């Protein structure tokens, strides 16, 4: 039997984040579900009990990230981090306000950077090398024409490259599919969960 892993998933209350959370819990792992509204995952708490830990977090509140992850890491190490939180915007780029653009970039680029910075030292210490396969993010394709959020996930893709270099050449992971959910292991390979998430996920919903 494989070891139980502890995941940290942002945006775990609905859509892809929730589907991934349920897949992970169903296979016996533990999940720290970071959500804006804890009541949105009350049914998961009731079903899975101590397997799921719920943390209230709006990732656009950057100072709160260190506070929340400080609590999470104080309770024990993390094995996998998934930067899933995000939202889409419909409309032409020129019609979007600077505030909206900044909000998307904060949620989908600045927050993942802050989360990665906070967890990488602990992942490296716990996993013996900071396997970049343990940090995952969204696919960099925009959901709608003119959506500035494409810059955020594209930045996450560059961030994963930085993490790979920081972790050293002996640590590599493969990622594919919209989920970008990769589980790294000590052999340096990655296990792709995207197909399992697609089969479990409901019809596409707003992020």
Describe this structure as you would to a colleague.
- The structure is a single chain.
- The chain is α/β, with parallel strands linked by helices and 207 residues long.
- The chain contains six helices and seven strands; from the N terminus they run βαβαβαβαβαββα.
- It has helices spanning 15-26, 42-48, 62-75, 98-127, 151-167, 194-200, and strands at residues 6-10, 30-35, 52-56, 80-83, 135-137, 182-184, 190-192.
- Helix 1 crosses helix 6, helix 3 packs parallel to helix 4 and helix 4 (98-127) packs parallel to helix 5 (151-167).
- The radius of gyration is 16 Å and the shape is globular.
Reconstruct the topology from this structure.
Blueprint: E1 6-10, H1 15-26, E2 30-35, H2 42-48, E3 52-56, H3 62-75, E4 80-83, H4 98-127, E5 135-137, H5 151-167, E6 182-184, E7 190-192, H6 194-200
Parallel strand pairs: 1-2, 1-4, 2-3, 4-5
Antiparallel strand pairs: 6-7
Question: Which features characterize this protein?
Answer:
207 residues; alpha/beta; five-stranded parallel β-sheet; two-stranded antiparallel ribbon; 42% helix; disordered C terminus
Low-confidence stretches: 128-133, 140-146, 169-207
Shape: globular
Instruction: Output the radius of gyration.
Output: 16 Å
Mean pLDDT: 74
- Portion of residues in beta strands equals 5-15%
In brief, what are we looking at here?
The chain is α/β, with parallel strands linked by helices.
């Amino acid at each position: 039997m494989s070891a139980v892993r502890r995941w940290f998933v942002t945006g775990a209350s609905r859509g892809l984040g929730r589907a991934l959370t349920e897949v992970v819990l169903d296979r016996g792992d533990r999940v720290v579900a970071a959500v804006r509204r804890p009541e949105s995952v009350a049914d998961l708490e009731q079903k899975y009990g101590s397997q799921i830990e719920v943390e209230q977090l709006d990732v656009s509140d950057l100072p709160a990230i260190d506070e929340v992850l400080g609590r999470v890491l104080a309770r024990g190490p993390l094995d996998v981090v998934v930067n899933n939180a995000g939202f889409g915007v419909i409309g032409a780029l020129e019609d979007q306000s600077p505030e909206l653009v900044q909000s998307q970039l904060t949620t989908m680029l600045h927050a993942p950077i802050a989360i990665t910075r906070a967890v990488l030292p602990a992942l490296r210490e716990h996993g013996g090398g900071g396997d970049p396969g343990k940090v995952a993010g969204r696919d960099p394709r925009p959901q709608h024409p003119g959506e500035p959020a494409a810059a955020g996930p594209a930045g996450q893709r560059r961030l994963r490259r930085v993490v790979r270099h920081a972790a050293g050449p002996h640590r590599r992971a493969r990622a594919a599919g919209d989920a970008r959910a990769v589980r790294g292991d000590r052999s340096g390979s990655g296990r792709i969960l995207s197909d399992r998430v697609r089969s479990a996920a409901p019809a596409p919903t707003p992020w």
